[in-house]
TrEMBL record:
It catalyses: UMP + diphosphate = 5-phospho-alpha-D-ribose 1-diphosphate + uracil. 5-phospho-alpha-D-ribose 1-diphosphate binds at R79, R104, D131, P132, M133, L134, A135, T136, G137, G138, S139, D202. SUPFAM superfamilies: PRTase-like (SSF53271). Binds 1 Mg(2+) ion per subunit. The magnesium is bound as Mg-PRPP. This is Uracil phosphoribosyltransferase. Gene3D superfamilies: 3.40.50.2020. PANTHER family: ADENINE PHOSPHORIBOSYLTRANSFERASE, URACIL PHOSPHORIBOSYLTRANSFERASE, CHLOROPLASTIC. GO terms for molecular function: GTP binding; magnesium ion binding; uracil phosphoribosyltransferase activity. Residues 6-210 form the Phosphoribosyltransferase domain. Keywords: Allosteric enzyme, Glycosyltransferase, GTP-binding, Magnesium, Nucleotide-binding, Transferase. CDD domains: PRTases_typeI. The gene is upp. It holds the Pfam family UPRTase.
Amino acid sequence: MAKFEVMDHPLIQHKLTMIRDKNVGTKVFRETVREISTLMTYEVSRTMPLKDVEVETPICKTTKKSLAGKKVAIIPILRAGLGMVDGITEMIPAAKIGFIGMYRDETTLKPHEYFVKLPEDIAERQLFIVDPMLATGGSAVMAIDALKKRGAKETAMKFVSLVAAPEGVKAIQEAFPDVDIFTAALDDHLNEDGYIVPGLGDAGDRLFGTK
Ligand SMILES: O=P(O)(O)OC[C@H]1O[C@H](OP(=O)(O)OP(=O)(O)O)[C@H](O)[C@@H]1O
Ligand SMILES: O=c1cc[nH]c(=O)[nH]1
Ligand SMILES: [Mg+2]
């Protein structure tokens, strides 16, 4: 079984609590999602492979570590995943970015895919699939499936969310046991409308000011 990690660093908890508040407006919500994503990148990238490189300091030559091999692609699930991209590219500026457009039917809660545009070499990259909300897990499972069908490796995938429901974590783990899952919070359950409780509401609407 791959990794499942709740990243409960105090700064992350503090910022996430701020944006759970329904009175927080679009500007602060967007800025804070970006900040949390940057903080999460430290931990999500912890296992990135390193190689030895020679470097000449002003004092002497030495051998030190540098990132090796596998490059990163960030794959936001549209729309809400877009809110996490800038925070991650702040730390990994050379990452390529692919897009999977998906919306969840409000009645059936089933995901519908409407757009896919990926870097050509996803099979050779570590993939950070990002979406602030992991609810039933339907969207995440469909996105991972879309990536696998295009050659991406399950062991190279990390799913990164801000708020997850136990149902969503279970859905990914059952369908794709080799995908690592990182979340800033594991909440209680889903309500009858499929929203995470306590959650933070509809992340896409709060990020983009829609209803
Ligand atoms: O785990 P699930 O039950 O599939 O729900 C989670 C999905 O729902 C939200 O997207 P939404 O459909 O609201 O689209 P949006 O990002 O365009 O708002 C959210 O950003 C996830 O993609
Ligand atoms: O709580 C939820 C569940 C799905 N999508 C959201 O944006 N929020
Ligand atoms: Mg939405």
